[in-house]
């Protein structure tokens, strides 16, 4: 039988370090409940990827347990590492995990999810495996109460964050957008303790419309349509987790010429959504947010293409 | 009701999308009413209003009754439909009975449609069977709500549209589709197509010759405040447009579809830069002996332009006849607001 490994086994020693990365998110364009292929309702979301925030995990394996982690409070990452090791069925049952992240915790940036996914990738990397994205998502869901679609990276998906299953893979890439994010001024939300929203039949039907509009926006690169999706989803979320200054935020969006408002549906950050290249509008939005007393303003591109291609 | 039983007629309720001009799309249903009927039954099953083997009671003379009868057969419910002898024909009644429905025909010597008598019979049936479920399509909020799936289909398959044209009967399809489409496209213009003798938009009641459109009462489900323009189309023009739709585009539909086509095609020709979509609620089979019973192909106009150059601009309360067509700027007002100004 042909040797499948061109490199000798000794060179892949058990002390090999595994590394993994995952970027954070900035809330969602859309969150609600959606029918799956067999008409069952599932909670789901469409994430706003935030490439300026990222978590980096390193995993040094050991043949004896347990898995330890620095910083010590990343307990979900420990659970994710253990679950991944169990799945891989290696003789390795322990290791040292280090998480290095610039994602602010507790604000809806998906910091713990990014840590968990970076960890799963690090463990898989040590084992020289590429795990399917749905496997990564399912491990993440097992390690957390709610998860999100960070495992899918820049592929826009409608992700079942309670079930860990995909509801819909949208055809295409995110339209080119600039997000100006900020702190809403409301207290942080502990995702684990946040009771899931209950939606009326009218809201459930409206979610199906927003899902269709998101699909169309992504297929046709229609930034304005995705801005509309975000604004309606944000407004609907006011009934479940109200942002106290939501009316002000909508007003600022209108004055600055933004395409819409997106929120973290279970967090305290929000963002103005702009089309790529709308520099004047972005600057106006930043200025008015500052004047109105909104803090922690950040700016990032969602799926920016090189300027020369535009 | 399990997922399989629920999904039995699912594909039957979706329309085909037909592009008739670069800026004109028709959504052609086999039987549009399957959509609200199925949605209402699903919700009633969820709340326990309708239980396995239960009894459904409704007053209808039209396609809503057929839709209920199909679903009742597929889901094994008992069904009683109350109609009037002026409204139901033998062939249609036979179809309903073959599906297992009990058809209660009331006498209607004045040919008024007998709404009040029919409702009394429904109430009597409901009082005799306390577990019976009355979908009540004119007032049930789940009727318009069911049209979210039509709006979704438009968004996914066509994308941004500027105008919706739909004929009105119960008010469910136009109100639901308009409401949900505006969630995506807030500037959407909504055009209601009615017929002379219908009270839906403030005219005095009179006998109507077009089946399936107009009404002798104003249903709660009609949201007048969503409507930008109202067009009244007479029976002759509706029937000619139905034949034109068949001859020019191959689409075999009922006269409510023809009336909507006449109006939508006129708008599409007038505003080539705007995208118009219209609804075709049923197929032509039921109208073979009426709309489609013509002797000479030469009598068929191939274009809507040759049927009529366009509507007359109406003040409210146009005394139109079967060969007329009028339009009125409704401007998203309530019925009371419009009536107080005339």
Automatic annotation (TrEMBL), chain A:
SUPFAM superfamilies per UniProt: Ribosomal protein S5 domain 2-like
Keyword vocabulary terms for this entry: Kinase, Transferase
RNA-binding as UniProt keyword: no
Molecular-function GO terms, alphabetical: ATP binding; kinase activity
Signal peptide positions on this chain: none
Domain GHMP kinase N-terminal per the UniProt entry, residue ranges: 78-157
InterPro entries named among the record's database cross-references: GHMP_kinase_N_dom, HddA/FKP, PduX, Ribosomal_Su5_D2-typ_SF, Ribsml_uS5_D2-typ_fold_subgr
Protein's recorded name: Kinase
